[in-house]
């Protein structure tokens, strides 16, 4: 009898230990690493915040079991105008991005000056003999101007500067001086406006960077603009194939672009149509798993809210993957099949607050995708970190 009792007790203790371990693991993953004094009112049960030394705070389970220590700081609630409109992006790169290196027939035989100089696909060429490169044509003009003289090229690779020397060669076909390098100097695309902030004069979209389609690298932006756009059609998403909002970029400019980074695309606000009321931005600790809405434009001129579910929250993920969301609204599923390209940046609202923005779709399940915390985007729009 006693042996049976201790076996039962051991089983109960083991189960309790497993439950506690599960809660602690969940808390370490789902609770934020930075904290505001007011957040303690919004912590999910059974977690609580206990003041720590200096600018720190201890998060505990049942006020006893430590989960993790986080930084504590006073923050001011941010208010923004919600987006949801389809927008067009036109970006000009800082320097020119190398998308191809080729050999060609010169008057001296087959040559590849760029390859000989050590230039690779993905490099960003910034200047030739000190003259800034702002376009494909500018690079071509500088190489032609060299008259075959070796030039010094300043470039970046993986964020690090380097200098190389390139000797242009005269092509057999036209006699022009060439470097054997293909470059990109601009791009355009469609996204969804996340918010505009009249208090700082900033505008935000996408929630993720624009990548070069050839190199897979983040495009270094020199200038650009965010414009109005209209829907011309929708390609519905299916398992294994991402859908897409097809749009036409308009002429009305809403803002400039000066940042293309991990948390999205940002610039200075120029003008905006009916902005509506100001909406509070949720702190990461205030975001909950459960029902929410996403605001987007999938039929021309009709910005609407659709039901979604926030299925998973993780404060340990990289920017752009803070939440996993699922489209539950039958109307949106009927129109798009779920999350589609062009919906990046669509604001997510929960409990009357902007909590995040859509960033990615799961190709294996187009109803589901990732989202970024709105707090990351408002910080990035002001020049702060993630």
Descriptive account of the structure:
- The chain has 386 residues and is an alpha+beta fold.
- The chain folds into three domains: 2-72, no CATH class; 81-91 and 186-381, Thrombin, subunit H; 103-179, Roll (Pdz3 Domain).
- It has helices spanning 2-30, 113-116, 136-146, 330-336, 374-381; strands at 34-35, 47-51, 56-61, 65-72, 79-82, 86-101, 104-106, 109-111, 124-128, 131-132, 151-157, 160-166, 169-170, 177-178, 181-197, 202-205, 221-235, 244-256, 259-261, 264-268, 278-280, 290-299, 302-313, 323-327, 347-350, 353-362, 365-373.
- The strands form five sheets. Strands 5, 6, 9, 10, 11, 12, 15, 16, 17, 18, 19, 20 and 21 form a 13-stranded antiparallel β-sheet that branches. A six-stranded antiparallel β-barrel has the order 22-23-24-27-26-25. It has a four-stranded mixed β-sheet with strand order 1-4-3-2.
- The longest helix is centred in the N-terminal third of the chain and has 29 residues, at 2-30.
- Mean pLDDT is 85; it is low at 37-41.
A few lines on this structure:
By secondary structure, the protein is of the alpha+beta class. The chain has five helices and 27 strands. The protein has helices at 2-30, 113-116, 136-146, 330-336, 374-381; strands at residues 34-35, 47-51, 56-61, 65-72, 79-82, 86-101, 104-106, 109-111, 124-128, 131-132, 151-157, 160-166, 169-170, 177-178, 181-197, 202-205, 221-235, 244-256, 259-261, 264-268, 278-280, 290-299, 302-313, 323-327, 347-350, 353-362, 365-373.
Top-tier CATH class of the largest domain? Mainly Beta
CATH topology of the largest domain: Thrombin, subunit H
Taking pLDDT < 50 over at least 5 consecutive residues as the criterion, the unreliable ranges are 37-41
Total of domains: 3
In percent, how helical is the residue content?
A: 10-25%
Rounded average pLDDT: 85
């Amino acid at each position: 009898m006693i042996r049976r009792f201790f076996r039962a007790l051991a089983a109960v203790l083991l189960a309790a230990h497993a439950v506690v371990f599960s809660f602690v693991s969940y808390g370490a993953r789902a609770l934020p690493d930075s904290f505001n004094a007011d957040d303690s009112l919004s912590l999910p049960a059974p977690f609580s915040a206990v003041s720590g030394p200096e600018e720190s705070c201890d998060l505990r389970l049942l006020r006893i079991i430590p989960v993790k220590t986080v930084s504590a700081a006073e923050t001011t609630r941010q208010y923004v105008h919600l987006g949801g409109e389809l927008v067009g992006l036109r970006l000009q790169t800082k320097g020119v991005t190398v998308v191809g290196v080729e050999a060609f027939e010169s008057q001296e035989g087959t040559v590849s000056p760029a390859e000989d100089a050590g230039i690779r696909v993905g490099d960003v060429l910034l200047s030739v003999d000190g003259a800034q490169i702002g376009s494909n044509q500018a690079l071509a003009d500088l190489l032609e101007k060299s008259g075959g003289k070796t030039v010094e090229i300043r470039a970046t690779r993986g964020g690090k500067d380097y200098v190389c020397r390139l000797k242009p060669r005269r092509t057999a076909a036209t006699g022009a001086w060439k470097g054997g390098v293909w470059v990109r100097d601009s791009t355009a695309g469609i996204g969804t406006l996340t918010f505009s902030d009249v208090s700082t004069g900033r505008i935000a979209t996408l929630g993720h960077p624009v990548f070069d389609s050839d190199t897979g690298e983040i495009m270094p932006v020199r200038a650009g603009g965010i414009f109005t756009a209209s829907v011309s059609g929708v390609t519905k998403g299916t398992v294994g194939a991402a859908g897409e909002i097809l749009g036409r970029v308009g002429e009305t400019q809403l803002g400039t672009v000066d940042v293309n980074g991990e948390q999205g695309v940002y610039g200075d606000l120029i003008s905006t149509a009916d902005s509506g009321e100001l909406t509070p931005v949720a702190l990461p600790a205030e975001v909950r798993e459960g029902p929410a809405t996403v605001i987007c434009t999938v039929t021309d001129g009709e910005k609407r809210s659709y039901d979604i579910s926030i299925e998973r929250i993780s404060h340990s993920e990289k920017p752009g993957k803070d939440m996993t969301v699922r489209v539950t609204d039958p109307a949106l599923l009927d129109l798009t099949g779920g999350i589609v390209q062009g919906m990046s940046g669509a604001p997510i609202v929960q409990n009357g607050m902007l909590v995040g923005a859509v960033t990615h779709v799961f190709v294996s399940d187009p109803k589901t995708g990732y989202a970024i915390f709105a707090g990351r985007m408002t910080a990035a729009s002001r020049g702060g970190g993630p």
